[in-house]
């Protein structure tokens, strides 16, 4: 997976890199079928000027599509975790769509018997 950063100040860089490496391993497990050179993850960080708020944006480029996610938080780690949580759910949904899970109906077991269907031992 190719990883690029933009607009991340040196003060926040170390905290972001630690969280980024942890979350990138999770994404690598999800996209193990893809060639690592074709998967690109781009992150950017912006600080809202008049508020104590950070916007963390992620762009994940796959051979089958592009996913975008943003996270907003009071600190850098909070916004990064929110963005990664969103991109992870989007990635799982994207894979389900590629597998066409919506076509295959899952069979369910017989379940629990209803109150009137309970056999009695007479």
Write the layout of secondary structure elements.
Blueprint: E1 2-6, H1 10-30, E2 40-48, E3 53-62, E4 65-73, H2 76-99
Parallel strand pairs: 1-2
Antiparallel strand pairs: 2-3, 3-4
Helix pairs in contact: 1-2
Keywords:
single chain, 122 residues, alpha+beta, Double Stranded RNA Binding Domain, 4-stranded mixed β-sheet
What does this molecule look like?
The longest helix has 24 residues. A 4-stranded mixed β-sheet has the order 1-2-3-4. The mean pLDDT is 85. The chain has one domain: 2-Layer Sandwich (Double Stranded RNA Binding Domain). The relative contact order is 0.15. The protein is elongated, with a radius of gyration of 21 Å. The chain is built from 2 helices and 4 strands. By secondary structure, it is an alpha+beta fold. Helix 1 packs parallel to helix 2.
* Fourth-tier CATH superfamily name: Ribosome hibernation promotion factor-like
SSE string:
EHEEEH
Sheet bearing the most strands, described? 4 strands, mixed
**Could you tell me the number of beta strands?**
4
- Estimated helix fraction: 25-40%
Mean pLDDT: 85
- Quaternary form: single chain
Strand order of the largest sheet: 1-2-3-4
- Going by CATH, the architecture would be 2-Layer Sandwich
Number of domains: 1
- Note the total helix count: 2
CATH class: Alpha Beta
Give the overall shape: elongated
User: Which structural category fits the helices and strands?
Assistant: alpha+beta
Summarize the structure.
With 122 residues, the protein is an alpha+beta fold. The protein contains 2 helices and 4 strands; from the N terminus they run βαβββα. The chain has a 4-stranded mixed beta sheet.
